[in-house]
Amino acid sequence: MSMQIVLRPAGTTFDDVISVARSGARVVLSDAALTAMAAARRAVEGLAAAPEPVYGVSTGFGALAVRHIDPGLRERLQRNIVRSHAAGMGPRVEREVVRALMFLRLRTIATGHTGVRPEVAATLAAVLNAGITPVVHEYGSLGCSGDLAPLAHCALTLIGEGEAEGPDGATGPAGALLAAHGIEPVALREKEGLALLNGTDGMLGMLIMACADFGRLLTAADITAALTLEALLGTDRVLAPGLHALRPHPGLAVSAGNMRRVLAGSGLTGHHQDSAPRVQDAYSVRCAPQVAGAARDTLAHARTVAERELAAAVDNPVVLDGRVESNGNFHGAPLGYVLDFLAIAAADLGSITERRTDRLLDRNRSHGLPPFLAEDAGVDSGLMIAHYTQAALVGELKRLAVPASVDSVPTSAMQEDHVSMGWSAARKLRAALDALGRVVAVELYAATRAIELRAGLAEQGLRPGPAARAVIEAARAAGVAGAGPDRRPAPDLAAAERFVRSGDLARAAESAAGPLG
């Protein structure tokens, strides 16, 4: 039986969004939500019957809001805003993003502040539950007045128009898909077309999923950093809790604690003053928890912003205490800033990860490891080009770190003269996290191989710790090859990426080290 999410006027969680977006959880509207929506609708209908123009109810939109619309044209007005705003271009947006966007718009409608009829909300829930996913395109949102074009393509499906993807993955006319699942298209009334479009739901959905993904990658990066420290015979004394208490950033304490637990019981650490004495390890090793910890604190701030947004009712105008009030809450600046901030943190985490990998491969800095971790250097190239791939990904991460939210292109005849570009920030963050996952996977590939190449030290009683041994065993079982002659590395890198993204890396480390943050 699939999971079921009950929508109430308040109380949606991150897990609810991810369950609907990624796991196909069913959505049910609570009685409290239906009551709140019905009350708001009565307020809208009262204003629709009044002679005074009310934005979104009896006027045009944006720069065209100066025109009062006669009652006989209002259904056409609402239908037309959906049709005209479905102007997206470019590649299709991922299914999980569209489902998150639809669920979050439904969540806002369920607050009772939009004035949308309960039957429209029920149709949106039915489309989600049927596994019908509107075709939404990459370009069309400026992150202000909501994610207009993406939401319009979703609303188009509700009225039986446009293209959508069925649960079998086949794309076809939305009307035919609705009919095949026994869903009647809706005829939109006053304010409903506008209310279906005017939200920050795409930005928020991508932020929530990015928070979950980045959190997993941060734990993975702590593990691979610890494995690299171990492979380089570095010191774990820099991870002592007392040192990090001197600089009480919460993320720093978590990352240092993760590394300390992964390294517990290792016989390889603490030999930095042996054959090639080092007073201190390089920054990329010694400062790993400071950088990852700062990224963790950035993520914590982003989660706070997302939680506030998840508690919001973003629409314009909104129904408030029986009144319909215009506002600017649809502006995506709060989301755009943290989406960009996370992309910056991802780029820097990727940068320090690459520097550690390079150190493992350079015989002048690897403290006894063979060049490029090759079996027979010169005949074999080892991981030389795997590092090139990682370096290319880091270059991409740096380009993706350029903020989108500092830009603004005025639109709608200068009525909408400042926009957030938050949708663009969200799209590039998803690309950045994809790249970061691959960067961490390359370090995993190199660090596990390097530890294996320290096998000769076992005769001196210097063995890797239990967590490293558990990770290496699990990685090899997952198809990540170990030390040996040259082979085509692409399959190994793909397996390493799956191992990182799936959480198998963290589970393997935790099987020996205990829970990690």
UniProtKB/TrEMBL annotation:
Among its keywords, does the record have Lyase?
A: yes
- Read off the Pfam families from this record: Lyase_aromatic
What pathway is this protein said to act in by its record? Amino-acid degradation; L-histidine degradation into L-glutamate; N-formimidoyl-L-glutamate from L-histidine: step 1/3
* Broad enzyme group: lyase
User: Which reactions appear under catalytic activity for this entry?
Assistant: L-histidine = trans-urocanate + NH4(+)
Q: Which Gene3D superfamilies match?
A: Fumarase/aspartase (Central domain), Fumarase/aspartase (N-terminal domain)
- Name one process (GO BP) from the record: L-histidine catabolic process to glutamate and formate
Ubl conjugation recorded as keyword: no
Keywords on this record?
A: Histidine metabolism, Lyase
Q: Name one GO cellular component term.
A: cytoplasm
Question: Highest taxon of the source?
Answer: Bacteria
Its EC number(s):
4.3.1.3
What are the subcellular locations of this protein?
Cytoplasm
For this protein, the parts annotated as crossing the membrane are: none
The protein's GO terms of the molecular function aspect are: histidine ammonia-lyase activity
Family stated for the protein in its record: Belongs to the PAL/histidase family.
Provide the protein name.
Histidine ammonia-lyase
